[in-house]
Amino acid sequence: MSSDSIERWKRRYERQRAARQEAxxxxxxxxxxxxxSNSELKAHTEQLEERVRERAAKLQIEExxxxxxxxxxxxxxxxxxxxxxxxxxxxIRCGIS
Length: 97
Known about the structure:
It contains 2 helices and 2 strands; from the N terminus they run αββα. The protein is mainly alpha-helical. A hairpin with a 5-residue loop joins strand 1 and strand 2.
C-alpha cells in the first residue's frame, strides 16, 4: 500500500471519527433536552392530578350538601333541564304523589 493510499485512509478515518463524535454529541444534547422536558411534563402532570383530586373532593362535599338539602327539605323540589324535562323530584319528603 502506498503512502498516498495510507494518507487517504487516515483522512477518511478521521472524518468518520469526527462525524461520529459530532453525532454522539448531538444525540447527548437532544437526550438531555428530552429528559428535561419529560421531567417538567411529569411535574406538571402531578400538579394537575393534585388539583383534580382537590376539586373532586370539594365537588363531593358540595354534592353531599346539595343532596342532603334536596332529600331533607319539607318543600317540594323539582329539578328539570333547560327544556323542562324533569330530572329529579324529592317526592318522599314532601308527600307529593
